[in-house]
Amino acid sequence: MTAREDILSRIRTALQDSPEAPQIPREYRSESGMETEKLIELLVDRLVDYKAQVAVVAEAEVPATVASLLEGARSYVVPEGLDGGWLAGMDDAGTGGARRRVDSPAEPLSVTDLDGTDAVVTGSAVAVAETGTIILDGSASQGRRAISLVPDHHICVVKAADIAGILPEALRRIDGTRPITMISGPSATSDIELERVEGVHGPRRLDVIIAR
Amino acid sequence: MTTFLGMPALPAFGSGNLFAGESFPKAAHRELGNAQLRANLGHATHTIRDKRQAVVSELPDWEQLRDAGSAIKESVMARLPDLLEEFEKNFTARGGVIHWARDAREANEIVAGLVRETGETEVVKVKSMATQEIGLNEYLEEQGIEAFETDLAELIVQLDHDKPSHILVPAIHKNRTEIRDIFLREMPGADPALTNEPPVLAMAAREHLRRKFLTAKVAVSGANFALADSGTLAVVESEGNGRMCLTLPETLITVMGIEKLLPTWQDLEVFMQLLPRSSTGERMNPYTSLWTGVTEGDGPQNVHLVLLDNGRSAALADEMGRSALHCIRCSACMNVCPVYERTGGHAYGSTYPGPIGAILSPLLTGIEAEENSSLPYASSLCGACYDACPVKINIPDILVHLRSVDVDSKRGTRKVPSQMDVGMKAASWALSSGKHLGLVEKGLPLGRLAAGRDKKIKKLPGIAGGWTQSRDIPAPPTQSFRDWWAKEHKSAAPSQAAPSRDDKETQQ
Ligand code: SF4
Fold first, then answer.
1. Which positions in chain B touch A171 (Cβ < 8 Å)?
2. Which of A23, B82, B132, B463 shows its CA 20 to 30 Å from the CA of B176?
3. Neighbour tally for B372: CB within 10 Å
4. What are the pLDDT digits (tens) for B329-339?
């Protein structure tokens, strides 16, 4: 007998009393019914609580905000599908001489290249106000998972329309089979005496730009 | 469906790091002597407990989420074979490879074989209970493969050649100074000027592991959830070490217990609300990664999953105990447990400490296994674990159930009645009638004699001595309640039976 057959038959034997699968009570909240302003306010509050920096700006101000956040960075990476308008504040060489690198699945940057890159700018698929979570699903504006992981500074643009109130609303908007990363604040650990320390292996700095 | 003919197969129990090397009372007694451990633990468990309480109270529908979580898990157990097959179909359709392992040895061999196929001799590891349970690191080492733990707490424990003592914060028993000393001693190239501040120590770990992450070709992980309807796996973490391992290497090998399934993508909305709040007391953990087989151009292109039984089917066969498999390893139960708080995780011997360990380990190994039969007694049955459990596992009930299984399993195996048997016999006689009890109570003053001047009994003889090893017993009252009642009611009408001042002492 293969291990597979063996295990499946053991489980069937274990369930000889034929337990019934209960109805799942789903009385928990599935909608928040929150207005946009409230969503933004809550998301900001949560993100700040996680020690992320947040700027709420009009869509037209995104490029200037990105540019100012990239100040001091020598290089940054963007996924090929990032809204070009968001980078309008910078020429291809980038403001202050920051060099732009474009990553795509067809022409991926090496891990070493990414490690030598100071920052990354991505979009996002959806955000959850109540938990302060930003979800990336690997689509063109967010790129491969590695690019938002290796550089030490992540600048993430969230469109106000993409903010959901609570987790069930957000997950309904996502295709679960995509490579998904949920981000709630910068990398953190609480392994030493339960004291929270921001920044271990993931980006130590997370800047979120909420674009109305 | 298979039809069953003849005798049902014997349950196949688990192997690996599931056994207590010595009985819980013995181990607990030793650990109780460690004041530093108790101080570290007390501080840590109380901190998480308070944080958890705060974020749980924030959610108006917490109880509804628990109800849903509990029902989803119950339904997973009832439909486990079908769900496993559904998951397998979907994961495989997207380029993942599934392996099945009956026990620890088989799982270890599969992982080692997969690593060997890549030609590598090093792997990076995401913290995982399943690989702890099967003793994967030790096995790989025997095979000439070095496994690097990348979770900070796991790294601390690994560097110190110690064992984890908590399922969420494995190094919870160590304080910052102890951790600094471990780094200085065991981490090549550690800065001799290293201070004991947590941010400094975290940065040292970052430096130490950075090269490993960026060059590793093979990673090994566990999984928090597996979604049957999409074939998706999920890892929930904080530091980004998980993301590093799950996305940068070429080969990813995941080891997961067969009970970790959830039927649908929608069910994730329940568990991603229950887990972070219950475990670290956060609204959401910093990072969660989800992957479904292979995604071309993004992440590992060789993706394997080892589905582990290792006693889970045996636990499933216990109708009362099977809900222990609902556990999502949040650790809330240990953070509220008065016994865990004092003894620490090592006393439980197995990979799974605390209240859940006290039921899960003997269910996975069989109650007769080594010293695991003492684990169901490692509880005061106060019920705090049940209240805290996000999936409503009734741990106290299962503890009591397992105690009876233990007693039954020992019945008839001894020729000479044990002290416990004799004691139980005597108690049954005493409690069977008021007259008997009255007779026994005449002996109470003897107890006072044994207690001495400070009115505390410090040492009882025989098996009762186990109790007094770590506790004192107050001396019995001079008079039994029954005697007091009789006396009181001879002189006073029942309605005026309020005790006088002089009787105070008898009220204990
Ligand atoms: S038994 Fe419940 S509380 Fe304990 S670790 Fe498992 S899920 Fe958490």
1. 265-266, 268-269, 272
2. B132
3. 27
4. 999 999 999 99
